[in-house]
Amino acid sequence: VAWVATDAEADAALKETTGKNWISGPHALFRHPAFRIFIVVLIFFEDMFMYGEDPLNDSHVTYNVPGMGHALGLLTFYTAPSAGLACLKISLAVLALIFGIFVGRELVTKRCLRDLVGLSAFQGSEGSIFVSSISAFSMLVPAACFYNMLQSEDVIDGSSNEIFLLLGAETLQYRHVNQCWQSLSVVVDFLAMISLFDAVLQDQRYYPDFAAGLKKIWASHDGWVRVAAAWIFMLTCSIVAVAGIFSTGKGEHDIRVPFHFQGTSEAGRSLIAASIVLTDILATVQDWDFPSFQEPLELESPTMIVGTFSTKLRFTWLSRAIKMLPSCECKCKRWLPSADFFHVSISGKWLQFGPLLGVMFIDLSYQRSQVIYEPQYYGQYAHPSDGRIWSIVDDDYLSLAYSRGSLINASLVTYAVRMNITTGLPLSPSAETDSLLNSRYTESSAKYLGPLLSIAILVGFACLLRQADWSKSRVAPETSVDDIGKAAPETEVSPVEAGSNVGPETETATFPIGGPLEDSAPQSPSWPPPAPIAAPLSEEPPLFANVPHTSTILTVDSYVSNPDTSENR
């Protein structure tokens, strides 16, 4: 059966379908381009506010995070005291990364997320790259523990973070290491901003009338304006922001915020982290091709990756290099990945949302630090009355209370030891250098509300992904409706074109698209359709052979059962 719709009918069907299907409909109100741009800009300001309010960013204690320090410590093979231990580090790291990539791609992505759960977002290679990156990094932790079991000369722990010195950190103290994390977060925020802005201005499908004049300028000069503007924005904003972050602090020549907020408590900072997780998820859900994050194959002008003229970034050099190696005929060959396993391609959507979701784990780590935060573990103490936090900046004094970032003498880090309880004056020259922060510590149990909200948001996101896939399997995608309305005008097939001997009195059946395929009902005046025409036994062309290529024929059974396969697309 063939449906052919006019432009007006297709537009009406599009609005009706997207109004009902808010989960994946591109014309849902919260997916308007203006609101999408607002969300990604909001993420940037939330990150900067979080950076200003986090008391750990003023801590002079050595950065110590178990798990993360173990994984990063295994990668810093150049810190090993001997060449043999350096080779051992490299070997364990390579094996852990390969095994982690295999687990993430074959077991988690393919067996679980694709086959078992059936999430369309992980059908391409981009989803497996995201999952494999997380699993590979996780496998470095047990590998580091195994390294400690094999020797005792070079122990890896939570403070083995020398890699941050290569990234620009002045020391391995919390205040300097967190500058690296914040710089990474800001760069990803800018990447999300310019990627979204570029996609919105390239769009001629969902919101063609939005900023139409700016779109013409953006696409002018064969797209070079778009490419040059993206690179200028990204490089300029990133360099300025990173330089500003590394210049912040409490020093004489450091940049300081010229005003103070009321000061957030650990409970408020935990809720801020939950709000950032929510906006990260919302920015992902707002994508017009949610939940598959794959543009329709019939799209005439696919969205190009920001700053390029390509629709995908492909990395094939490793795959080609492996194919050049001599083949192995051993029995373990079937357990080894093929050369195509290392063929990597990344679309523009995953280039935008992948790092954004990755930074979300940094936000979750920040939230964890606020939940377990106690001032004495970070060289800080709180005022007994108003809860304002003081930070000890005397490194010699801190060396008496801490060893590699671990507290060994808590009695040295209290308000009573540093300040006079009655007058509030410092009791020693060392205490005179202590810095008063804007943040507060209230010992409130409300700090646990933030993690609960974050867990609820992540569970809701997982359910939304599954529901959106289920919804798209029952309702034809809105983009197909739009395509049919514009690419398949009502067309009559003449008997000569159809290759039959039917006379001119034959009437062409025409059906409008009005909703889900399984609910579509044929309407007058051309119903019922004529009886099926038997193909002639001659060498004449088969039925519909010469129909213009703009006509669209939908196979109902296969499309309704599985609309997202490439064959049915």
Can you walk through the features of this model?
The protein is mainly alpha-helical and 569 residues long. 49% of the residues lie in helices and 4% in strands. A 3-stranded antiparallel beta sheet has the order 3-4-7, with no helix packed on it. A two-stranded antiparallel sheet has the order 1-2. Strand 3 and strand 4 (388-391) form a beta hairpin. The two termini are 17 Å apart. 33% of the residues are buried. Mean pLDDT is 78; it is low at 1-5, 475-526, 534-563 and 565-569.
Record the strand order, biggest sheet. 3-4-7
Say what oligomer this is. single chain
Overall shape:
globular
Number of helices: 19
Q: Tell me roughly what share of residues is in helical segments.
A: 40-55%
Please provide the ordered H/E string of secondary-structure elements: HHHHHHHHHHEHEHEEHEEHHEHHHH
Stretches where pLDDT falls below 50 for ≥5 residues? Answer: 1-5, 475-526, 534-563, 565-569
Radius of gyration: 30 Å
Structural class: mainly alpha
Strand portion? under 5%
Index terms:
569 residues, mainly alpha, three-stranded antiparallel β-sheet, 19 helices, 49% helix
Brief summary of the model shown:
By secondary structure, this protein is mainly α. The chain has helices at about 5-20, 35-55, 70-75, 85-115, 125-150, 165, 175-200, 210-220, 225-245, 265-285, 315-325, 350-370, 395-400, 415-420, 430, 450-475, 480-485, 495-500, 555-560, and strands spanning about 310-315, 345, 380, 390, 400-405, 405, 435-440.
